[in-house]
Specification:
Layout: E1 9-12, E2 15-18, H1 29-33, E3 36-38, E4 41-45, E5 51-53, H2 56-69, H3 78-92, E6 97-104, E7 118-125, E8 135-143, H4 160-172, E9 177-181, E10 187-189, E11 194-199, E12 202-206, H5 215-227, E13 231-234, H6 238-242, E14 246-251, E15 255-262, E16 265-266, H7 275-287
Parallel strand pairs: 8-9, 8-15, 12-13
Antiparallel strand pairs: 1-2, 1-7, 3-6, 4-5, 4-6, 6-7, 9-10, 11-12, 11-14, 14-15, 15-16
Helix pairs in contact: 2-3
The protein binds 4'-deoxy-4'-aminopyridoxal-5'-phosphate.
């Protein structure tokens, strides 16, 4: 996949520059130690034809919180960054896009705090994923990082070594994606998405503490509230999951994507007959600003 061409622009520290001409400093803690933070955001072409960044405020608030959690200087304002993102999308002629703001460290190879940060906003085309293909999920041999060793609620660059290891493992074994446990063996999340499962009309999701609390997860909960579907946040076990009617991952990139099986064992119900499927459809309408009557279950 080509992320950019010679015409693509990015926003870098307040200026619009060509992606092909932007330089990063090799002497940065981000390159060597994974010390940086980022966001994953999507924009959509709405039903009225406009470009809309979904939950822009929430994503840029989380970016700031992630940077502050890691003591990275953050001299950027949310409004400035949202405006900059719309500008980059417009200049690149993109509507259905993935947006990747990255806060990275300047040249400093010591273990001392930095006095400045860099911020880049990259965008690339990403067509809406229709979520029709159900996933074959594998319970990973990797656990999510220990929350006593990492600020797991921050979207830090280095955490994604764990994500890539788990995803590589699952794919090398013929599965579509991994499901990781927390350090106590309870269900946690996917390498880049949260998880819900459905049982007898109720949705269950791992409680916060060992996961990245996703913005899509929060959106799913909003939808459930409107649909009057009960949601339980708790420590969930693999045994409970094995007995579930349906399950799905949710995240900005993944959107809402249903599962076919966990460890080759199919979920109990046909995906199209589940509440989870109704939530998937409602999510799609929400991001594209299609006003649809929500079904009350
Ligand atoms: N967990 C992890 C580890 C992630 O990387 C992501 C993607 N940001 C999520 C969950 C889902 O978060 P969101 O819905 O905010 O994209």
């Amino acid at each position: 996949m080509n992320y950019y061409n010679e015409n693509t622009v990015i926003w870098l520290n307040g200026s619009i520059v060509k992606a092909s001409e932007a330089k990063i400093d090799l002497y940065s803690q981000t390159m060597h130690y994974g010390f940086g933070v980022f966001e994953g955001i999507r924009s959509y072409k709405t039903h009225s034809g406009e470009t809309r960044i979904f939950k822009a405020e929430e994503h840029f608030t989380r970016l700031q919180r992630s940077a502050e959690t890691l003591s990275m200087p953050y001299p950027f304002s949310k409004d400035e960054l949202i405006e900059a993102t719309y500008k980059v999308l417009e200049l690149n002629g993109q509507q259905d896009a993935y947006i990747r703001p990255l806060v990275y460290a300047p040249a400093n190879m010591s273990f001392a705090k930095n006095t400045e940060s860099n911020l880049a906003i990259l965008t690339w085309e990403m067509a809406p994923f229709l979520g029709e293909k159900l996933l074959k999920v594998m319970s990973s041999s990797y656990q999510r990082p220990n929350p006593k060793g990492f600020h797991i609620q921050a979207k830090a660059v280095g955490h994604y070594v764990n994500s890539l290891l788990a995803s590589y493992e699952a794919k090398s074994k013929g599965y579509d994606e991994a499901l990781l446990s927390d350090i106590n063996g309870f269900l946690a999340e996917a390498p880049g998405a949260n998880l819900f499962f459905e049982k007898d009309g109720t949705l269950f999701t791992p409680a916060t503490g060992n996961i990245l609390p996703g913005i899509t997860r929060a959106t799913v909960m909003e939808i459930c509230e409107e649909m009057k579907v009960p949601v339980v946040e708790k420590q969930c076990t693999f045994e409970e999951l094995a007995d579930a009617d349906a399950a799905f991952f949710c995240g900005t990139a993944a959107e809402v994507v249903g599962w076919e099986s966990i460890d080759s064992k199919p979920l109990r119900k046909a995906w199209n007959d589940t509440i989870s499927r109704q939530i998937q459809l409602a999510y799609k309408d929400r991001v594209t600003e299609k006003t649809a009557e929500l079904t009350t279950i």
